[in-house]
Amino acid sequence: MSQHIVISAEGLGKCYRRGARSEKHDSIRDALAARAGALFRDRRSENAEHETFWALRDASFKIARGENIGIIGLNGAGKSTLLKILSRITTPTVGYARVTGRLGALLEVGTGFHAELTGRENTFLYGAILGMSRAEVARKFDAIVDFSELRDFIDTPVKRYSSGMYVRLAFAVAAHLDPEILLLDEVLAVGDVTFQRRCMAFARQLEQQGSTILFVSHNMFSIKTMCQRVIYLKLGRIAYDGPTDEALRLYEADSKLATATWFQAPKDPAIVVTDIDLYNEQGERKTMFEFGERMKVRIGYRALKPVEQPHFLCSIKRADQVLCCNFSSYCDNVDLPHVYGDGAIEVLTPPLKLVSDRYTVLIAIREKGFQQLVAGQIGVSFHLRHEIFEATEFGVFHEPAQWRVVQSVTGQMEPVRGLR
Amino acid sequence: MTNVPVSHCRMAHPTTPDSIEIRPNSGLFDLELDTVWRYRELLVVLTLRDIQVVYKQAALGIAWAIIQPVFAVAIFSVIFGHFAGMPSEGIPYPVFAFAAVLPWTYFAEAVRRSATGLVSDAELVRKVYFPRLIIPLACVIAPLLDFLIAFIVLFGVMIWFGVMPSWRLLAVPPLLAIAAMLALAVGLWLGPINVRFRDVKHTLPFMLQIWMFATPVVYPVTIIPTQWKWLFSLNPMVGVIEGFRWSVFGKGDLNSVSLGISLAAIGLFLIGGLIFFKRMERSFADLI
After folding, report:
1. Long-range Cβ pairs for the range A131-138 (8 Å, 24+)
2. Are residues A349 and A295 located together in one domain of the fold?
3. Do B22 and A210 touch (CB under 8 A)?
4. Does residue A152 fall inside a structural domain?
5. Do A318 and A183 lie in a common domain?
6. How far away is chain B from the Cα of A115, in angstroms, using its nearest Cα?
7. Residues A273 and A352 in one domain
């Protein structure tokens, strides 16, 4: 390989004692009690495997200078653990890694900011925390302040800042860290749209400089636009390491079909959902949709017994667990008289008018007249992209409204052109 | 939108690799003090932060550095000096007590902060890498400012009571350094324990109180019966406080033997603390 290897990891693993995190506020008394208890228990009965779990295991990879790598996986797959090991916040239990070059790690924007200190004081504090020298921060100070657009507030204590201002200043400092290798953990997921754009611009600029970026995200759009290579972690192990498209395909395939937690599956279910697939209107399989696109949900089922007049409910749940909308065969007056054997039902949604985020399709099947829930499935995830509106800050859905300006109190009104 | 500046000089010399090795274990005596040195700027900044933050939004501000010891001395003077008639080696009791309360206040504050500093900065420990030793170090350095301010007051009090300062005051900085080393050593042992067991935080106040009464702060060392002197000297703060009184008043003598023993003990305690802290450091982010 002609390029320089900047990160090489060899069998990295991190083992946690089960409950170590929840035990964090334990007292000496509890620890003594546990010790005393252990004396009277058979040691061998306590299987070590039950007491510990591997947050990360056998992680080996090499990363060359200038690569942009996405790290994906479900929650608890070991993404953050990997970044924490590489940034030396925590040490691995086993394995070895070598990192060559100035490393910047942004596991959170603004860690170490002190609320009582002013923006100026915090700039120096945060700069030092990120590993910049005082002279370096002093030299870049004006650029940082310009970038944050907070010149008027730079001598105000940050506790008077809005959360947006806070993040802006923190990011401005971080953006001037000028690292050769950057580790980013979901930090781009905070802040408003302008901020997000700025983050992306910053990442691109680093990319052009030849910096190496490791980027943890749940946002498959960002991953797709930024990374050529993806490491997909599954239960602490690297399930896939290679081109982005293939990694995303595997990830989507894996995050399919799990029984919903609220659904108590009966012993001999009358009907099971065997497949949920998403298509666009033209019938192409997709997991990323644009705002306003229609989505076709195909629900494959196997009815082991005849089910009379079932009601199909197809719900869309946002990543933050907000149930956004339901499509119900009952409400839409669809008559499904009798279902038996293998089959499929297709739902063509109206144009999706939701804000940008990751969504999950849920399927519930009820017997006639809402008597009994016979199936409950968490299905595929998909991403929806809205040009401007991100989730949480902009509610759930967006519909164009009609606007006009009321010119003056004399009552002269004119419609505004260009806006709808 | 302003662009992020690009440092071209770095790109011109792409091969200046300072490689970091990441592995499970470091050697028992590999304290990585060179890394601490490389992060000295962070030490300065965190120390400044600790100084700036303490009296922010307090109407009396830095005056608290004076008010606290003055009140302590006032109470001691009334109770021990006046009611109990505690001997004070011919020096007015308030001055006698003040000269000891100052280094003690510094020491107690340094211990309290360095033992709890890791937990107060839990966010940093969880999310950012730096040598964790920086935190107790900053905690021991920051209260020195309070000491300096109160020391000026001590000067005033001395002159008021007609006690003249002398060249012996030159012994104050080394004595203070010994107190700082001891505080750091205690912090290095208690800090990691506090990460795991928050009991330390609750134990500290009365531990420090007991320690204060086991140190000749409110009474002279002469009231200790001779046969118990050896036990008393096991407390390294005895040498520091006695040395302080000697340097301020010229009374008594600087017991170089007991101070030497104290120093050796503190040295061992400190080195042990460094090794212990370094061993525990690796799990801070997981446990805190």
Report:
1. A131/A102, A131/A104, A131/A177, A131/B39, A131/B42, A131/B130, A132/A176, A132/A177, A133/B41, A134/B41, A134/B44, A134/B45, A137/A173
2. yes
3. no
4. no
5. no
6. 9
7. yes
Of B6, B19, B41, the CB nearest to A209: B6
Average pLDDT over residues B145-149: 91
pLDDT value at residue B268: 93
Question: Distance from A164 to chain B by nearest Cα, in Å?
Answer: 16
CB contact under 8 A, A198 and B44: no
Question: What span, in angstroms and rounded, lies between the C-alpha atoms of A306 and A297?
Answer: 23
Among the partner residues B2, B11, B126, nearest to A147 by beta-carbon distance: B2
Taking an 8 Å cut-off on Cβ atoms, the answer to whether A130 and B128 are in contact is yes
Q: Check pLDDT > 80 for residue A31.
A: no
Chosen for mutation from A98, A169, A214 (greatest number of chain B CBs closer than 10 Å) is A98
For the segment A48-77, what is each residue's pLDDT rounded down to a tens digit? Answer: 445 678 889 999 999 999 889 999 987 778
Q: In angstroms, what CA-CA distances link A212 with A68, A90, A245, B139, B269?
A: 6, 21, 20, 36, 44
What's the complex ipTM?
0.79
Burial per residue of B198-217, b for 16 or more beta-carbon CB atoms within 10 angstroms, e otherwise = bbbeebbeebbeebbeebbb
The H or E element spanning position A85 is helix A79-86
Residue type, A128: A
CATH number where A92 lies: 3.40.50.300
Mean pLDDT calculated for residue range A16-39 = 56
Q: Which of A87, A94, A100 sits opposite B24 (nearest CB)?
A: A94
Interface test with B, best of A21, A116, A196 (most B CBs within 10 A): A116
Decide if B128 and A111 are in contact by the 8 Å CB cutoff: yes
A417 within a domain of the structure (yes/no): no
Q: Identify the DSSP state of B81.
A: I
Chain B residues closer than 8 Å to A117 by CB: 49, 52-53, 56
- The CA–CA distances, whole Å, from B139 to A197, B43, B143, B210 equal 40, 10, 7, 22
Terminal-residue alpha carbon distance, chain A: 55
Question: Under DSSP, is residue B248 helix (H, G, I), strand (E, B) or coil?
Answer: helix
How does residue B14 score in pLDDT terms, banded at 50, 70 and 90?
Answer: very low
Range(s) of the domain holding residue A361: 258-385
Q: Tell me the shortest Cα–Cα distance from B244 to chain A, in angstroms.
A: 35
Chain A residue numbers with beta carbons less than 8 Å from the beta carbon of B204 are none
CB distance B53–A117 less than 8 Å? yes
Q: Does A352 lie in the same domain as A325? A: yes
Q: Give the CATH number of the domain where residue A283 resides.
A: 2.70.50.60
A274 and A302 Cβ atoms separated by less than 8 Å: yes
| Residue A109 belongs to some domain of the structure | no
Nearest beta carbon to residue B287 from set A24, A125, A210: A24
Among candidate residues A10, A4, A2, the one with its CA nearest the CA of residue A64: A4
Q: Extract the tokens encoding A71.
A: 């790290």
Q: Tell which of B21, B51, B286, B287 to mutate to test the A interface (max A CBs under 10 Å).
A: B286
- How high is the pLDDT of residue A382? 85
Q: How far is A63 from chain B (nearest CA, A)?
A: 14
Q: What pLDDT score was predicted for residue B209?
A: 94
User: Ranked by mean pLDDT, which of A214-223, A331-340, A347-356 comes out on top?
Assistant: A347-356
pTM score of the predicted model: 0.74
More confident residue, B86 or B13: B86
- Any domain includes A157: no
* Alpha-carbon span A415 to B191, nearest angstrom: 67
3-state secondary structure of A243: strand
